[in-house]
Amino acid sequence: MLFAPASLTSSLSLICRPPSAGYGDVVPVTMMERWFDVVAMLLGGLIFGYIIGAIGNLVQQTSAKENEYHMAMNELDFFMNEMKLPLLMRTEISNYFQRLHTR
User: Fold this and answer.
1) Mapping DSSP to helix (H, G, I), strand (E, B) and coil, where does residue 12 land?
2) pTM for the structure as a whole
């Protein structure tokens, strides 16, 4: 046997209590129910962690693209200042790249 009944019960309590409300109105009775609860709690925690990680990754990718865009626009502004382009032409070029970025 992998775990003794007392060890499984204490492990179940350790895993179940923090993420649940802990009302105690429905509790596992048999060993099979306890094992199912342990596996279900661990699986639920893994799925929750995966979802939070995916959302964080999405936010990070969006931020990286925004930073890349702002760096490119800063380089473009620097180039246009160095070349002493007329103000109307600078505005048109900047607007073009802004529209290109929003697509």
Assistant:
1) helix
2) 0.49
The span from the CA of 43 to the CA of 33, in Å, is 15
Q: Where are the domains of the chain?
A: 60-103
Residues 73, 79: contact at Cβ < 8 Å? no
Q: How many angstroms separate the CA atoms of 95 and 93, rounded? A: 5
Reported as a single tens digit per residue, the pLDDT across 11-51 is: 666 666 555 555 666 677 888 888 888 888 888 889 999 99
Whole-angstrom Cα distance, residue 93 to residue 76?
9
**73 class by beta-carbon count within 10 Å (0-12 exposed, 13-18 middle, 19+ buried):** middle
Residue 35 has a pLDDT of 85
